[in-house]
């Protein structure tokens, strides 16, 4: 096991900057998810940790040891590829013991360790089968076992579930999390699926356009997004973000949102932070899950655009020409016709700067 | 007459009876329909492939030659049974030609394979000027073999460029008579063949190498395999089929080696570079013993067919 430290890591491909100055510390035994849309630099980061690509600038340290110049085979890194990269011309056993054979371990040790890992991953019955044509979850286990048998200090997983259909993904997620608990290794998991990151990771690092935007526990990232990108990217659907202007009302500081009306007064700490903020233009954010219907005078009002009833939840789209606000209600509530009056839960309201999208934090 | 093809039923394909899903099992019904539908094509192929072979077999059992004053269907008048085949076994010039062809094959196929593989390995990774080198490398293949023959004929003259270069390197005049020395002539022929056909090997093997999944090579590297181990355990097994194809193509081609060689040495000096094709060409045009030539050609065809089938069986595994 070991910790990973990325210091001012930069990667450029010609004139294209894939990663700009990334600093990140991953603790020993931690499960960190690198989350972001495709092309955000998460795979590049991963490939540099594995040693498949060299950083343009900056350092990568494993337990304070600089990895510059250490070839990928000597880094003690287990890597699970997106397509698993199983050696399909070999049997399951030959896949599992590949690393041990190539590094010249004694035959008895190879046998013992391979049998042990096969037992752990429930692959014993398949050991002598050709690995071509096995099902995806078995291939995933072989890919993990093949790396795990080398007892790597660090496990890197590159979107291992993206080739799996949605129904099966939930099963694989559970399996993967259970495996990580069993091995207890430091794991870095690259994904563009926020649900995978939320359910499995200890901490999530959200990236976009080669930049690390926020690192935190799933709930931190969900509850206190650092900027509008994270707010929109995390959650399904993402956070509602409405541009508005801070206005003083007789009941306190509120936000004029235009068509929906003036928001309920901001909670006191947020109002204080907003007063201290240099600009009046802000983005008013709240989670679709944190909306209630109300008839209070300070409620926001928008016409019903569309209601998606999916059994356990109802996703309500509000707006006159497009769905400017989404709300998620549990179950199947009755909805009034025409214009709905609603308000975000006070505790769930977030403010962001209208220009750079950064969160306006309460101190 | 034995040489005639069977009367072609293709010209009048039987009208297909209406398909009934009753008595006959559906599978054999479908198979029979398939046979009927492909029959014209099959007969055509049979005619193209089988007719010349049967004709060859027929001629090979006679002493017929174009100078015999008979059209070939009447070659039976000169029937000699298996005399041509008996001659063939005792023909020292033929066994010499076969031996020489095999020698060229045994030297050139592995040589061209290793050179081609080495070059392919160099070309898998990107480097500056790759495209230019690539074009230069495959150029020999584009040269018309006859032209290549004249090129090497010129290069290997005793006052030619090869000797000039050797002389410059050694610092004293070199006057090796490449094409008139029995051993060196064969070497020169092999060099010419290797120059011209290594690029094909290179192209085929490069295609195979590029087809090896990059992820698997990386996965192997991450598991601690060094470059040689990665090549041996991942790339090579995945290239097996394409390697067999490359070797089969070159083996068969060298078995038939003729044009470049004939222009360079005409099989000489003496019979020093006489390969099977050159020998057949010579006795066909000079001795005009067509019955005998047919016998040789048939035997070679059979040997090559067996080799090809074996190679394909290996590939299928």
Would you summarize the structure shown here?
The complex is a heterodimer of chains A (363) and B (317). Chain A has 363 residues and is an alpha+beta fold. Chain A contains ten helices and 19 strands.
Can you give a write-up of this model?
By secondary structure, chain A is of the alpha+beta class. Chain A has 2 domains: 4-223, 3-Layer(aba) Sandwich (Rossmann fold); 251-353, Beta Barrel (OB fold (Dihydrolipoamide Acetyltransferase, E2P)). In chain A, 25% of the residues lie in helices and 32% in strands. Chain A is built from 10 helices and 19 strands. In chain A, strands 6-7-8-3-9-10 form a 6-stranded mixed beta sheet, sandwiched between helices. In chain A, strand 15 (300-309) and strand 16 form a beta hairpin. Chain B folds into 2 domains: 9-85, no CATH class; 91-274, MetI-like (MetI-like fold, Orthogonal Bundle). Chain B has helices spanning 26-60, 83-90, 92-124, 130-142, 145-155, 161-170, 182-210, 214-222, 227-255, 259-265, 276-287, 290-316. Chain B starts with 25 loop residues before the first helix and ends with a helix. Classes of the chains: A alpha+beta (363), B mainly alpha (317). Chain A binds chain B through residues 50, 52, 71-74, 77-79, 81, 83, 85-87, 89, 98-99, 102-103, 146-147, 150, and chain B through 213, 215-216, 218-226, 229, 233-234, 237-238.
Keywords:
heterodimer, A: alpha+beta, OB fold (Dihydrolipoamide Acetyltransferase, E2P), 6-stranded mixed β-sheet, 10 helices, 25% helix, B: 317 residues, mainly alpha, MetI-like fold, 2 domains, 12 helices, 70% helix
Report Rg of chain A: 25 Å
CATH superfamily of the largest domain in chain A: P-loop containing nucleotide triphosphate hydrolases
Largest interface: A-B, 22 and 17 residues
Unreliably modeled segments of chain A: none
How do the strands and helices of this protein lay out in sequence?
The complex is a heterodimer of chains A (363) and B (317).
Chain A: E1 4-13, E2 16-26, E3 31-35, H1 42-50, E4 57-62, E5 65-66, E6 77-80, H2 92-96, H3 98-102, H4 107-120, H5 136-148, E7 154-158, H6 166-183, E8 186-191, H7 194-200, E9 203-208, E10 211-216, H8 218-223, H9 228-233, E11 240-249, E12 252-256, H10 268-276, E13 281-286, E14 291-293, E15 300-309, E16 313-318, E17 325-330, E18 339-344, E19 350-353
Chain B: H1 26-60, H2 83-90, H3 92-124, H4 130-142, H5 145-155, H6 161-170, H7 182-210, H8 214-222, H9 227-255, H10 259-265, H11 276-287, H12 290-316
Helix pairs in contact in B: 1-12, 2-12, 3-7, 3-9, 4-7, 5-7, 5-10, 7-9, 7-10, 8-9, 9-12, 11-12
């Amino acid at each position: 096991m070991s910790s990973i430290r990325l210091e001012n890591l930069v990667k450029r491909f010609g004139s294209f900057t894939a990663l700009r100055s990334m600093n990140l510390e991953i603790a020993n035994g931690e499960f960190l998810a690198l989350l972001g849309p495709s092309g955000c630099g998460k795979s590049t980061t991963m490939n540099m940790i594995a040693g498949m690509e060299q950083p343009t600038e900056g350092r990568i340290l494993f337990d304070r040891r600089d990895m510059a110049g250490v070839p990928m085979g000597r880094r003690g890194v287990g890597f699970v590829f997106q397509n698993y990269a199983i050696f399909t011309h070999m049997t399951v056993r030959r896949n599992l013991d590949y690393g041990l054979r190539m590094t010249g371990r004694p035959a008895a040790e190879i046998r013992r360790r391979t049998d042990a890992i096969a037992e752990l991953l429930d692959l014993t019955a398949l050991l002598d089968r050709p690995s071509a044509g096995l099902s995806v979850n078995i291939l995933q286990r072989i890919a993990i076992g093949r790396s795990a048998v080398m007892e790597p200090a660090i496990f890197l997983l590159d979107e291992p579930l993206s080739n799996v259909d949605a129904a099966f993904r939930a099963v694989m997620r559970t399996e993967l999390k259970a495996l990580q608990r069993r091995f207890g290794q430091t794991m870095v998991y690259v994904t563009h699926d926020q649900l995978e990151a939320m359910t499995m990771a200890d901490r999530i690092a959200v990236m976009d356009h080669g930049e690390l935007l926020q690192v935190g526990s799933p709930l931190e990232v969900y509850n206190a997004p650092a900027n509008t990108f994270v707010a929109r990217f995390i959650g399904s659907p993402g956070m509602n973000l409405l541009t508005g202007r801070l206005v003083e009302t007789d009941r306190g500081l509120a936000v004029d949102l235009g068509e929906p009306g003036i928001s309920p007064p901001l909670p006191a700490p947020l109002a204080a932070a907003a007063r201290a903020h240099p600009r009046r233009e802000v983005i008013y954010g709240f989670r679709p899950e944190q909306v209630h219907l109300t008839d209070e005078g300070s409620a926001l009002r928008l016409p019903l655009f569309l209601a998606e009833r999916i059994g356990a939840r109802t996703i309500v789209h509000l707006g006159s020409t497009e769905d400017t606000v989404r709300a998620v209600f549990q179950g199947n509530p009755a909805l009034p016709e025409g214009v709905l009056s609603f308000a975000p839960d006070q505790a769930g309201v977030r403010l962001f700067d209208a220009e750079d999208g950064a969160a306006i934090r309460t101190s | 007459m034995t040489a005639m093809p069977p009367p072609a039923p293709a010209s009048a394909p039987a009208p297909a009876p209406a398909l009934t899903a009753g008595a006959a099992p559906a599978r054999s019904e479908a198979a029979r329909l398939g046979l009927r539908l492909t029959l014209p094509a099959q007969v055509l192929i049979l005619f193209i492939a089988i007719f010349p072979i049967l004709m060859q077999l027929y001629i090979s059992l006679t002493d017929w030659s174009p100078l015999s004053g008979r059209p070939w269907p009447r070659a039976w008048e000169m029937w000699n049974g298996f005399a041509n085949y008996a001659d063939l076994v005792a023909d020292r010039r033929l066994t010499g030609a076969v031996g020489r062809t095999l020698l060229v094959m045994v030297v050139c196929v592995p040589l061209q394979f290793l050179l081609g593989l080495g070059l392919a390995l160099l070309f898998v990774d990107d480097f500056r000027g790759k495209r230019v080198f690539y074009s230069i490398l495959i150029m020999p293949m584009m040269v018309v073999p006859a032209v290549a023959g004249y090129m090497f004929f010129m290069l290997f003259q005793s006052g030619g460029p090869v000797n000039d270069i050797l002389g410059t390197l050694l610092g004293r005049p070199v006057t090796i008579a490449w094409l008139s020395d029995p051993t060196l002539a064969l070497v020169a022929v092999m060099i010419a063949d290797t120059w011209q056909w290594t690029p094909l090997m290179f192209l085929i093997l490069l295609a195979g190498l590029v087809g090896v999944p990059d992820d698997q090579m990386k996965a192997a590297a991450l598991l601690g395999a060094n470059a040689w181990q990665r090549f041996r355990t991942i790339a090579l097994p995945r290239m097996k089929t394409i390697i067999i194809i490359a070797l089969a193509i070159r083996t068969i081609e060298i078995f038939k080696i003729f044009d470049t060689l004939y222009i360079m040495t005409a099989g000489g000096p003496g019979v020093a570079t006489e390969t099977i094709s050159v020998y057949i060409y010579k006795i066909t045009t000079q001795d005009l013993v067509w019955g005998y030539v047919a016998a040789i050609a048939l035997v070679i065809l059979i040997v090559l067919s067996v080799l090809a089938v074996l190679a394909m069986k290996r590939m299928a595994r």
